[in-house]
Amino acid sequence: MTRTLKASGFLGLAVMMTVGMYQFVLLSGGSGVPGWMIGGHAHLGVLSILAIVMGFAVPALGVTGNLRTAVTGLYVAGQWGIPGIVWLGEGAGVALLMPTGFLWGGCLIASMLIMFYVTVTEEGGGTGSGPTGMPTADD
């Protein structure tokens, strides 16, 4: 499951960089970049970086089973849903999709609340068996 988070993060960064290059083409051609394009670009970039971080945080905190599945699914849905509705809703003119921002944002919030729950209820602050073998900080 953490492979899904990391892969989604790296794919999201590649898409975000591609959109950034397109924005550069628009600017160098003398055109402006629409605000909706900038907003989707920024959200996808930040959420993709956090997806990669989550890919390391989930095993470091020992999140397993249904909670692990929920964290992964909810986060990936929100990571792509938020910039997707900005690009489709504003950019493509499908305003009908805009209210789903509450759904995608809710997915991200639920994912973070699950991680919060695991963090505060886990005795010992995690397994300490992350990728480097160093214990996780407990501060």
Overall pLDDT metric: 90
Our count of helices gives 4
Low-confidence runs of at least 5 consecutive residues: none
Biggest β-sheet, characterized?
none
Output the radius of gyration.
17 Å
Q: Tell me the helix content.
A: over 70%
User: How many domain modules?
Assistant: 1
Topology:
Layout (H helix, E strand, L loop, with lengths): L1 H27 L6 H26 L4 H27 L9 H21 L18
Task: Give an account of the 3D structure.
With 139 residues, the chain is mainly alpha-helical. The chain has one domain. The protein has helices at residues 2-28, 35-60, 65-91, 101-121. Helix 1 packs antiparallel against helix 2 (35-60), helix 2 packs antiparallel against helix 3 (65-91) and helix 3 packs antiparallel against helix 4 (101-121). The chain is elongated, with a radius of gyration of 17 Å.
Summarize this structure briefly.
Helices cover 73% and strands 0% of the residues.
What brief labels describe this structure?
single chain; 139 residues; mainly alpha; 4 helices; 73% helix; membrane; transmembrane helix; DUF8059 domain-containing protein
